[in-house]
Amino acid sequence: MKYEVVIGLEIHVQVKTKTKMFTAAPYRYGADPNTLTDAVVLGLPGTLPVLNYEAIERCAQLGLMLGCEIAEVCKWDRKNYFYPDSPKNYQLTQNEQPLCIGGSVEIELPGAARNIEGTHRWVQLNRIHLEEDPGKLSHTAFDSLIDFNRAGVPLAEIVTEPDLYSSEEAVAFLNALRNLITFAGISDCDMEKGQMRCDANVSLRIKGSDVLGTRTEMKNLNSISNVRASIEYEIKRQAKILEAGESVIQETRRWDATKNVSFSLRSKEEAHDYRYFPDPDLMPVSMDRKRIESLREALPERPFDRQRRYQEKYFLPYTITSVLCADRELSDFFESALSVYDSPKAIANYIVNDLLRELSANSEVGDSALLISDTKMKAEFIAELVEVVESGIISKQIAKDVFSEMFHSGDSPKTIIEKKDLSQNNDDSAIESLCLEAIANNPKAVAQYKEGNAKAINALKGPIMKATKGKANPATLDALLQKLIQGSE
Amino acid sequence: MSDLFYSDIASLNQGLESKAFSAVELMQSVIDRTDAVELKINAFVDRDVEDALKQGRASDERRARGESLGPFDGIPVGIKDILAVKDQSLRCASKMLEGYHSPYDATCITKLKEAGAIIWGRLNMDEFAMGSSTENSAYGFTANPWNLDCIPGGSSGGSAAAVSAGEAIVSLGTDTGGSIRQPAAFCGVVGMKPTYGLVSRYGLVAFASSLDQVGPLSRNVKDSALLLETITGHDPLDSTSLNQPKVNYSSALDQPTKKMTLGVPKEFFQQGIDQEVKEAVEKAIAWYGSKGYAIEEISLPHSELCVPVYYIIATAEASSNLARFDGVRYSHRSKDAENMLELFSKSRGEGFGEEVKRRIILGTYVLSSGYYDAYYLRAQKVRSLIRQDFEQAFTKVDAIITPTSPTPAFQRGEKNNDPLAMYLNDIYTISVNLAGLPALSLPVGMTQNDLPIGMQVIGKAFGESDILSIAHDFEKNHEFKNMRPKI
């Protein structure tokens, strides 16, 4: 293609706080309609907003996490427009002075294959500001219904520079951003629950040009796949227009995820005049620099920093670290296991392979995967399991069963081993007689082994394992059989 | 006992404490008086007699148990129809809020209830507090008790007329550009706008948020002081309410007044002022001079810009504040709306009166992109200059004396077709709101046509005690407080 796409994203993230942005009403997803409201949320006559400092701090924390500068003063503006989901018909937002300025997000572009690390790049941000979420409209054949539960929930709007150059980059950005935000515990970023929503500004230009083309703004992208699909669609649509020698019209478009098409919502001429002005009900608040510094000091490690540390310090492979560091809870779990027993590779393997398998196997159909916090599994038990395997108390084979038992019962490995009498049988004389018996009973396999077929030895191991109920240490067993066969020559 | 409705709070409190009469009897006296004059005055848009008597009985029971809540226990206080009272109608004298009842109390109402006051009726006003004559009410005009053909002033015309006519002992009004002081002047009562931030605005239906304040109206200075000290205090529900130490304004009144310096701004006595008003105020100033107050001429050079600046800032804020009345949740909903846009436009078109629409359109215009800098932003800069004028003046004087209004009460209908003439009526009061200062109006004379003349005393920020004592000094040496309209 002779065109290059330039994308800027606006991402709205619901900030997790005890109460709403300007009142003491609580919020949680999925409550009965209009049960999480009060006089302020509904904009009843005479009510006034009161700042929720928790929301401001959380947003500042987000800004620090993304390397933004934090404004000296937190100020509010009114964005005036009429819409039934807006109780006051103005939205309190930060137009003139965003709380967080600049910043950047490290993204990882897709690698050559799933298990190969892609290149990293920093995407520049323009700003992050706070505003209040409006309510939610739903339409029936005859009526439109409004649920004001969501109204007034603190919303952080993260605005990037036009600094993304493919739909893959946009997706990579969203994944990286989501990971950063969930790492900091600022939001769960569940797009299905509306905790994270995305608008995409897309424009094309001739490759090599440094002038931006006319952009369109795509609204209502409520999943990562919608973001990808709508950008792809828009690239094709704009390319077709430009190819035909026509000009792209600056407009707002809406993505229809069921039909996989977008349609024009309003043109630039029809754009709202929001008549912004400083809100006279909320006094500007100066941001306490000491508090900002203490927030900065308390920031969690960024996911990619953590991943690099795992690779450099523990020599863990990309396939493992990319899974561990995609989930704060998972990597925290790894670290607490590691603090008990220092065997990073084995512990990471149990978590990434066995634990994740159990978690998905035990999730209800249709539900999202179980979280570690939903289970009885304790990090120190994983450490203990690795320790008993590495010290030869149980075999890796038995450890798999022990793991499954740990997952379901929540018992420690040692308790399970003791209860089920699973520790390896290292009584050499008993095993030796079993070995001799097996050699005597399988002359054919012994002959094959002697002729150089190493695998033939397995035929001898089967009956011994059966007799010991799997408790014979496989490595010891191999060595012993070899010794005995060679000795019998 | 027949004149209970015209008594002051101190003597009523004495009577209630000594059991000379009960709170129910006091309330009944006010109800009877209201019934007798209300057909002529129309100060109320709504009043619940049964509820008022019930509050009276509760007060009597408290007092019988020895649990009186203080000097306000059992005193009927009239409430402007813009302040939220739980379970009472709240219409702002607009069709827009027909049928609406507030589910909560404004903070000033909560404070009055905690002091045992009887919350009495809903007082008429200009729709959404926009006007200077109480003619812009969807529920009929209010008459001036001194001359029934004259307007009572506005927007708190009902609050001033009710107090003047004995239909309430005291009342609450709100003042955005003179809406307490000008009707107080026209009806011959005391009315006060406190420093911005002194009284919580929570539960006051916003007209212009950066200018609105709740304040008292009464027949004498001391009752205003008593009412003011009952409703002040920091309110966590209003971010613009200030955390100031509580002051007992009423007890400071009777202390010997230190002789203060009074500033007289020359700009306020020039053109457009009624001769009788000018003379009455000058006479009052002369009296202060004779009593040992220092009188100093001052200048407030940006005074002539007050009216345009006010009508930009106030209407800009109003256009946004009144957007919530859209027919969707609780306000008037048009029956002819075919779609969403019509639901908004027809509901608002039908629900709002002419003056409100005029100001919403003006405010929308001055905030529009391309005009914002030229109007709103510029007005805010001039507002700072106006504030500086006062700061400058207050380095030399303790208080500033002006007329409250350039004229006495005018005839009903006189300025209806000339909004600009109506706006100019607030020329002396508006700058005080723009600067956020406290000011009161007190009666200082009568015209030959028997209409009251008001004088404005403007104080420094939080200088309420000063202006109350200056007013009190005048009041106790003159007879105006005992003059009653013949209704």
Q: Under the CATH scheme, which architecture of chain B would be assigned?
A: Alpha-Beta Complex
What kind of sheet is the major sheet of chain B?
A: 11 strands, mixed
Strand content of chain B: 5-15%
Number of helices, where a helix is a run of at least 4 consecutive DSSP H or I residues of chain B? 16
Q: Looking across the biggest beta sheet of chain B, what order are the strands in?
A: 1-3-2-4-6-5-10-11-9-7-8
Helix content of chain B: 25-40%
The span between the termini of chain A is 73 Å
Uncertain residue segments of chain A: none
The number of domains of chain A:
3
The interface involving the most residues is between: A-B, 29 and 43 residues
Q: Counting H and I runs of at least 4 residues, what is the number of helices of chain A?
A: 15
Radius of gyration of chain A: 30 Å
CATH homologous superfamily heading of chain B = Amidase signature (AS) domain
